[in-house]
Amino acid sequence: LTGMFAFAVWDQRRRRLFAARDRLGIKPLYYRPLPGGVAFASEIKALLELGQPATDPSAIRDVLTYGWVPTPKSAFCGIHKLPPGHLMTWQDGRLSIERYWQPEPRAEITDMAEACEELDALLGEVVPDHTLSDVPVGVFLSGGIDSTTVTAYLDHPKTFTLSQDVAHRSEAPAARIAAAHFGTDHHEVTAGAIDLEQALSAMPNLYDEPFGDSGAWSVWMISRLARQRVTVALSGEGGDELFCGYQWYSRWFTTPSSPIHDILARLVPPVTNYGRSLHRNTTCGLERYATFLGVFTPQQKSALLGPRLADAHDDDLWFYRKNWRDDLDPLHRLQWADVHTYLPEGMLTKVDRASMDHSLEVRPPLLDHRIVEFAFRLHPKLQRDIHGGRGKLVVRQLMADRIPPGHFDRPKKGFNLPIRRWVRRHPGMIDAALDRLADAGVIRRPRITMFKNEQVWALLVLDRWLERFGGL
Q1: How large is the C-alpha radius of gyration of the chain?
Q2: pTM for the whole thing?
Q3: What is the rounded distance in angstroms from the CA atom of residue 189 to the CA atom of residue 161?
């Protein structure tokens, strides 16, 4: 099977259930063991029809580390996620889960010309394959490397872009240039501050568990726009993870730690931007990776967590640790961790739930397993120039003559929203949420705070989710 899927087959004769989830976790599959059987669904809310279990405190604590609840957990005790690339069988009262697909980094492609030729052939086959449909297909176009590359392999598609009311954060100008270059039928929607209350109210039922990525509402809005004209859209998800495109990769490699950072980290209030930066500069390896990807650092959580979560579990980084491989070269180590953690749990969950709320099917062709396996065969020198700060080298080289000059040199902005700026237009919103979370014992009311965008969003979403599903 190619692409995204989650399915189950009941063998009536053998009385055996077989279920599987796609290799990268594009589509979800939840299950709930029951006396004498198992229930399964594509949404948690379906399984709650069997009765709502207790909230899992360790999962809520995980939200403040990762921004989401990591697989195989859910926010509810006894409800689990089938991991990507795994299959599940149930027979005679026995439930078993096993992995059926696992790529392995081999770094066997070392020549750039060879890499470009193979990637060009793959994209020429894979991207059109993902447009197979009885209905019109569009593209989420940000103007960045990944979505522009997908658009380049299609014939004048409809394209959709989210504009922001903060000019320096908006990707709309770059998307317009790419759309004009490829002659697409282009459409835009602007994300305005008026959406904030609506977004927070929608999040609990949209994701069924706390989900702390503000880009979720960006995807919801662009999906609403796209659904007015198409029922299937392609996206560029996976490009940053497969081809090492995140700018923080270079900082992970090149920012040195020093003893002075340890001293300052003990003196500066932890729940501040400077405190977070100092925590990053006192760590290395897996712990440093977590400070780039996580919502709150372990030091910040130590200062923030209330009595209901303080002892929920011992190792806050358990999920990153589970998917960290010291046997790989450093760049492939980051690539491997991203593909197994942030990509399925954050990026793909975000897009799937937000788009399906509008009955829009979003397909990420760059995550076709043929391209994933190709990316894991690339030598690190074809992926990223660590000191030059440029990633996706093979994609840049392949597309160099197909895009406007300098187009891929624009700074990456992403779909995340200017939450702090918008919250300031709603006096008391974050204070009220912090008070409720403190009253519930989830956090200790911080004395000094300088929250980042995603920290504000995670706390607001957690507050609304606990309010909707009854707290801890």
Answers
A1: 22
A2: 0.93
A3: 7
